[in-house]
Design goal:
Elements lengths: L9 H17 L3 H11 L2 H18 L4 H8 L3 H13 L2 H26 L2
Helix pairs in contact: 3-5
Pfam families: Trp_repressor
Protein name: TrpR-like protein YerC/YecD
Organism: Candidatus Beckwithbacteria bacterium CG10_big_fil_rev_8_21_14_0_10_34_10
């Protein structure tokens, strides 16, 4: 992926980032998010983002680099980069991982409740 070397005016850049972030925040339904991602990101960009999140999940669960490499078909460098990002500025990773954990917990609880009433 190439990014233009021509720099945007800082005010314009700030405005378009704000519009982008607000657009993401306004996407409420999973189907809408899928459509947005499909149209705004190339398949390669999508794969990079998805694998980055998966690597973070595996690292959070204590999996080894070898296990992650085998399961996700990523390089040690990719895993190391995600590990470094998680340790350097992890707010976004923490936010995402906590939401994933909450969904997993809710799913497990719902299964237990369903089984209880069977």
């Amino acid at each position: 992926m190439q990014v233009s070397k021509n720099k945007l005016n800082k005010q314009v850049e700030k405005q378009i980032y704000e519009i982008f972030f607000q657009t993401l925040a306004d996407l409420k339904r999973k189907e809408d998010v899928k459509i947005f991602i499909r149209d705004f990101f190339t398949p390669t960009e999508q794969s990079v983002l998805v694998k980055r999140l998966a690597v973070a999940m595996y690292l959070e669960k204590g999996r080894s680099y070898e296990q992650i490499k085998e399961a996700l078909k990523v390089s040690s460098a990719t895993i190391a980069n995600v590990d470094k990002m998680m340790n350097k500025s992890s707010e976004g990773f923490i936010l995402a991982l906590r939401r994933i954990e909450a969904e997993e917990w809710a799913g497990k609880l719902a299964k237990k409740v369903t089984n209880f009433f069977k």
